[in-house]
Write a structure and sequence with these properties.
Low-confidence stretches: 156-170
Number of helices: 6
Order of helices and strands: HHHHEEHHEE
Number of strands: 4
Shape: globular
Radius of gyration: 19 Å
Structural class: mainly alpha
Strand order of the largest sheet: 1-2
Length: 170
Amino acid sequence: MTSEESGGAGTADGATAEAAVETIQREMTVFARRARASAGRLHPELSLVSYTLLGHLEEADGCRATDLAAHYSLDKSTVSRQVSALERSGWIERRTDPEDHRVQVLHLTEAGREILAQVTRSRRTAFRERLTGWSAEDLARFASYLLRYNATDPDPVTAVEMPGGRASRD
């Protein structure tokens, strides 16, 4: 980290910024661990990774497995295993791309939409409970900081570890 990035190494502001970065890194790790752990409680068959992939497929209205791999910076084999599990569960299906019959596009099934909606409601309830007592201003500020943080092009060094030792930037 350069002195500019840290707010001026050797200064009180630099030390404060460095301490803040350390706290952010530590707390984001705790956040990621809690998110993975809570996913199993919300639905035992739907991991955080699966939930994320289902959400992406819903938002994109379908996409190829290679698109998922590229979006989340995952190996194709990792995505393939996840996709196979989601297909076995009946939550996604493959459809031939009408514009290129060689391409298979993944889409949510009705059961996939239902499980995604159910888990999303549960997650929102859990977040609301955890954020009880926060002012509207604090919630808006926190939301804006998360948006700003997630809009930044991620650095692979800070990627979150996924099951199987793979990294995700999401």
